[in-house]
Amino acid sequence: MHAALGALSGLVAGYAALAMAELVSVAVRPEASPVTAVGGAAIDQTPAGVKDWAIRNFGTNDKLILQLGVLSVLALFAIVLGVLAPRFRKGASAGVLGFGIVGALAATGRPDSTGVIDAIPSVVGALVATMVLYVLAGLLTAPGQSVPPRSPGSAVDRRSFVVGIAGVAAASTGIGALGLRLNAAGVKEAAASRATVKLPAPASPAPQLPRGVDLKLPGLSPFTTANRDFYRVDTALTVPRVDVGSWKLRLHGKGVSRPLTLGFQDLLRRPLFERHITMTCVSNEVGGSYVGTARWLGVRLADLLREAGVRAPSRGGPADQLVARSVDGMTIGTPVETVMDGRDALLAVGMNGEPLPLEHGFPVRMLVPGLYGYVSACKWIQDIELTTFDAYDAYWVKRDWAAKAPIKTESRIDTPKPFATLKAGPVVVAGVAWAQHKGVDRVEVRVDGGDWHQAELAAEGPVDTWRQWWWQWPAKPGTHTLEVRATDRTGYTQTDARTRPIPNGASGWHSVVVTVT
Ligand SMILES: Nc1nc2c(c(=O)[nH]1)N[C@H]1C(S)=C(S)[C@@H](COP(=O)(O)O)O[C@H]1N2
Ligand SMILES: [Mo]
């Protein structure tokens, strides 16, 4: 009985701590709230293999799962401390303060931390929890006794315990709800700042897509991915909120003879380019969904670099790596040579005719056709530094992913779906293939390891986009395995050598098993 009451007071104390920390984080920084900070630190410390596994199994829910994990660990310790508190009040208080220190260290150690001030939510939360636990434990200990009696304390104490615990729980709910609401208002402000943005017409509009790039077949991914359907991969537990009015981008470093600092309007005053580009995440499994195509609007990064006096390494420039930094502390390293080789590497401000959505990097992100996102597509960008690959390892490179990672030529079967049951007769097999900045030349399909059949290709879009394909399969009853492979314009054909995403992208043929009746 006592253990249960102790556990309950531990949980309520922990709850009070988180609620108070959330409210205090409104004044400090929403990202400094302990669960977010500890979760963020956990993401940074997670070995690449585990992160890869989490993305694979939880997809975009990986963040929610992580936060639930942090909360469960916290709840477990709160229970233990709560049970111990009536006997060891000082020890339990020290334990709670220890938790505060963990939160504080996590918050101040985040790459986007603004200093010791980020420790305040965790410290205040821990102090509140210590107080709550101390008082509740006192009520569980009958007067004059230093250890809990066999039966719960006197009727008076029991009533004060119930009133106390209910009061703390109610107050914490109010405080926590207020904190969450005020923090959510911050998102609204960023959204409002986004709503004020009017994107100018592009100086160089996207080339008209040829008729027939989009076969519009049922079950096939559309050629252009809608913003709401576009995959999202990042380490941000709370979406960074950036105010366009005060946003600045600094361009500096090795071989930069004229460092630049640009505001958002400075970017909009420059000639804007609009281009269809297919993005891919290195964590995409064969057949996975972390790939999408949008019509991006932005400034050509190479033009900015040239204006700053940067020369490509092949022209004697001293820097071979461009390191982009985001407001949330992500670092992404890209070869300067690739950015300046004539492709449409962009500092993007628009996505499918809108300002960038907050989740996709508002107000400005980078984009380099042909390179995986983690080596090219910095969202919420605020700084570009020219350096060398020898001198600096970016975030994922420190975690064992390759420093350079061009996107591998891949193909995917979108329809039929895995384990679908189909009727015998003609079946449309269709999907997409991508070989950004090379182009897709051929796609082939085979059934049950038989001969390869050449698929029909949709009209060819710009060289940095994927290509749809389809093949009519005379399906006969039975269980069948469909496989696909693509050949790009360099003449390379995908091989069946299966590799995992780490260190530089998955490879192998996508296969789908279906049953025909
Ligand atoms: N600031 C920031 N930028 C980032 C990331 C990140 O975690 N933080 N993830 C990168 C990765 S791994 C990919 S694949 C792309 C994904 O962009 P999207 O979420 O707009 O699809 O963003 C890149 N840019
Ligand atoms: Mo990625």
Mind explaining what this structure looks like?
- The structure is a single chain.
- Helices cover 34% and strands 22% of the residues.
- The protein is of the alpha+beta class and 517 residues long.
- The protein folds into 3 domains: 2-193, no CATH class; 227-399, Oxidoreductase, molybdopterin-binding domain (Sulfite Oxidase, Chain A, domain 2); 410-516, Immunoglobulin-like (Sandwich).
- The strands form 4 sheets. It has a 5-stranded mixed sheet. Strands 3, 4, 7, 8 and 9 form a 5-stranded antiparallel sheet that branches. The chain has a 5-stranded mixed sheet with strand order 12-19-18-14-15, with no helix packed on it.
- Helix 5 runs antiparallel to helix 6 (120-140).
- The longest helix has 41 residues, at 155-195.
- Bound molecules: ligand MTE and molybdenum atom.
- The site of the ligand Nc1nc2c(c(=O)[nH]1)N[C@H]1C(S)=C(S)[C@@H](COP(=O)(O)O)O[C@H]1N2 has 19 residues, from loops.
